[in-house]
Amino acid sequence: VKDQKVSFGSTKWMKFQRDFENFKTACIPWEMKIKEIESHFGSSVASYFIFLRWMYGINMILFGLTFGLVMVPEALMGKPYGSLPRKTVPRAEEASAMNFATLWDFSGFAQYSVLFYGYYNNQRTIGWLKFRMPLSYFLVGVGTIGYSFMIVIRTMARNANEDGGGDDTSFNFSWKMFTSWDYLIGNPETADNKFASITTSFKEAIVEEQESRKEENIHLTRFLRVLANFLALCTLAGSGYLIFFVVRRSQKFALEGLENYGWWERNEVNMVMSLLGMFCPTLFDVISSLENYHPRIALRWQLGRIFALFLGNLYTFIIALMDEINLKLEEEKIVKYNMSIWEASLYNGTIPENSTAPPIEVDPADVPRGPCWETMVGQEFVRLTVSDTMTTYVTILIGDFLRAVFVRFFNYCWCWDLEYGFPSYSEFDISGNVLGLIFNQGMIWMGSFYAPCLPAINVFRLHTSMYLQCWAVMCCNVPQERVFKASRSNNFYMAMLLFILFLSTLPAVYTIVSIPPSFDCGPFSGKTRMFEVISETLEHDFPSWFGKVFGYASNPGLILPFILLMVYV
Question: Which residue range is the domain that position 461 belongs to?
Answer without folding.
Answer: 34-163+173-350+363-530
